[in-house]
Amino acid sequence: MRVATWNVNSLGARWPRVAHWVREHSPDVLMIQETKQSDDRFPYAEFAELGYESAHLGQGQWNGVAIVSRVGLRDVAPGLAGDDEARHIAATCGPLRLHSCYVPNGRALDDPHYEYKLRWLDSLRDALAARDESERTVVAGDFNVAPSDLDCWDPAALAGQTHVSEPERRAIGEIEATGLIDLARELHPSEPCFTWWDYRRSSYARDWGLRIDLVLVDAAVAAASTACWVDRAEREGDKPSDHAPVVLDLDEQRLS
DNA sequence: ATGTCCCAACTTTTGGGA
Known about the structure:
The protein has helices at 11-25, 44-49, 112-129, 155-158, 166-176, 183-187, 203-206, 219-224, and strands spanning 2-7, 29-33, 53-57, 65-69, 74-78, 88-93, 96-102, 136-142, 181-182, 196-197, 209-210, 213-217, 225-230, 246-250. By secondary structure, the chain is an alpha+beta fold. It has one domain (2-255): 4-Layer Sandwich (Deoxyribonuclease I, Chain A), CATH 3.60.10. The strands form three sheets. The chain has a six-stranded mixed beta sheet. Helix 3 (112-129) runs parallel beside helix 5. The longest helix has 18 residues, at 112-129. The two termini are 14 Å apart. The structure holds one DNA strand.
């Protein structure tokens, strides 16, 4: 079974690449962030032609999250309690309970948006702490936090900025403490595994990246996982998103 | 050169967000 997460930075602008990527890589489930679409513009029919059911929580110009699946899609839960932005959607697809997350950026440490980001992460933690432990859980998406210095191209250059602050990293740690494993880091303890590169300053060519797109899984999913990898090729070529997809491959037989 | 890309709109240029 293959599950992927991808911040597409506008599904409208990225549709040709998304459709091509889905055909090439055949994910069973794709979690999408930053669709930047209202629900009435979401390409439900186009995904259906590719064999996928879709659940979308849209907002319009900003945010927007989705889960598309070819292995069933039920018990859709759009939105995080108390949040009025389109940043979280959960659904059950086959044997997995999946959460597609788009964590607030934070903007700057002294910006009110940063406080919103920390509160949002606390809300996600609370929702995950209350989950049904019998469900096999995958929490994935754009967390806008680099959990450690290994996840940064130059930690010194980022000092004093969002994405690397101690409160943000602590909030990620508290989410993991609900019983979730940062799978890319678990399987690749010494590789950076960047997932995002700024469009500016030729950042991709210089490999000035961050690992901010995470796949957090419970112990049962971790035990069944055979790979967790970043599709850097998707960050190249014409009109890429600034994020690359992160792919989780698992052996469904080992999910007991 | 706060350097690029994407969106909306009092839309053909500007401002907000990442």
